[in-house]
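Problem 3 from the worked examples.
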Amino acid sequence: MQKANYLNTRTASGNSGKYPLSTQTLDFIQQQIMLLQQLGYIGGSKYILRQPDGKNAGLCYIDGECYTLAAKPVMSDAIKFVCIATKTENIKADGETYAEARTYKTAALSSTSSSTCFPIDKFSVLVSNSALAEQVKQAPQVVLEYLKDVLAEKMPMLVKSGLTRAQLDTLLTPCVMTCKNSVAIAGQTNYGLTVMPAGAAGCVMQTAIMGDGTKFTRVRTAQGWAGDWAWHRTERDMYTIEMRIVRGVVYIRHGELPADAKIIVVRKKRRSAWRSTGGAKAYTHNKGKRIKRAPKRAWVHYKGIVLNNGKADEWYVPHCIAVANSKADADLLSKEMGGLCRPLIKQLPNDSDGNEVYSVSGVRKRVTAGKRTAKSKASGYVEVGIQVVRNDADGTRMVGGEIARLKYRIQNKRVNTGKTIMILGKIRKVYNRVYYRSFSMR
């Protein structure tokens, strides 16, 4: 630290308190002031202490020096720089002119760059002590929110084995856990479990999440659990159809369906991009002409077929219980999916070589094991599906679940006829191409 002894300086003659006032003294004082400015580095090399408000000037610190910020312009999205303006002043004294004796430096916010400018993104705005004090008051709440987030990540690590029904009934505290070899829910003993408050005091909702993503919930009110061990699928999963195929037989499984929900059969309908208008009763200028239209591929209700509803969360083989035209399609009643889809692939008379020929609904080419032509192919399929729907009072569809898609196929395989034939001195087995129908899941 530098220090000047202004009051007690002694001269050679023994006098004291006569410190000489000179340019050296003024420079000494200015150096002390510039030294104090270095304390500003505590906050960094570039920051704004006070922003201008349009009437009052602001204050900023740049590389060891303090600058006043012009009252205008104020801070906005258009401000890109902090620019420094330097101005010098001449002084006249005792008949002499002292050039550039004083230098004034000021800063201002600017949207454009000039000779001495610094990007605004290099500056930080210091927060006042009052604002910091308010943040300190709110710090406990911020810490609690942080701990909640951390706990939310850690809670799934809780693992409980052998959880009983009695323990699950008394589990009312909000939590997340993994249950292993515990009481069965929807036939599963391994599942994830969340317990959350349900709004009113004493009400909670337990949600069991199975390995395949399906969710089951139950709610406890102030009077107790609703129902006797009554777990229900959530609305999102309620309309989801699960499906599997065992030896050509289609099995399905679904959740607890509402009373007005139906399970229907749909198929993919194809329509040509051309429409013929030249019929017998057409106008003369339309006869023999075709009009192009947008091709259509959409799911449509197949013959108005409605399947039976099984027990919730149990596999079963669905069968037809209703059709749109009970007279024309009465033979479809009580049939399973194989019998319902059979009319979609019809067998035609054999070709001249005795090969079987089939027509597939919505497909122009015929299916045959005979010689390939531009109008035939070896196999084919029709897209069908099963869907859960609910209808409005006027019969229009209100809610429809995701379609469980199937392919109803016709294809051939080699079958040994049991006969043999001599070819080039070797006995060869005789095979025949036999067509069969099957389902595959999409």
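Problem 4, a separate protein:
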Amino acid sequence: MIISIKRTFIHKTYFTVSILGKAHKLNIKYAKRENVKLERLENEINIILPNIYRNSNNEEIINMCIQKLYNEVAVREVENAMEFARFVFGFAPEDYKIKRVNDGYYKYSNKILTINPDIVSFSREVIYTTIIKVFCKIKYREGSKKYENAIQKGLREYEIYINNNREVNVRRKVG
């Protein structure tokens, strides 16, 4: 459960939702419509509910909307982090999936890596470093010298990757 409330939302901002480490105002609105609409703006998320939900407990619907948003963001962000780790380490798990897990942000079992989409509430740095750590755990015993060296290699490569992307973005803005 992402949001827990005790009363019905009435067209106001009550919460913020974090996406990639940035807070977005959560606006709940009601309209004459048949379905739920989710809008992600630069610093806001609008959830527009049908009028029939105005006087009911809508916590579950709101959480489902936010989970759907997290799923959509996770597909892109996790794929990018996985590609980065594949490039750095030269291997990848046999398969991975994006699915909620109860006890953390990832699980590796039966050669399948499961990433919790709620990880996108944190910054890209957290996502990438988590994927780096998972790749190192897959290949090396946690706490071993090889594991520690692999973590350091992954973090160094991530810093280079970030610095190169910053330079490209600066050149795009200037040019």
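Solution to problem 4. The beta strands are 13-19, 22-31, 37-40, 44-50, 95-98, 106-109, 112-115. Confidence is low (pLDDT under 50) at residues 4-11, 168-175.
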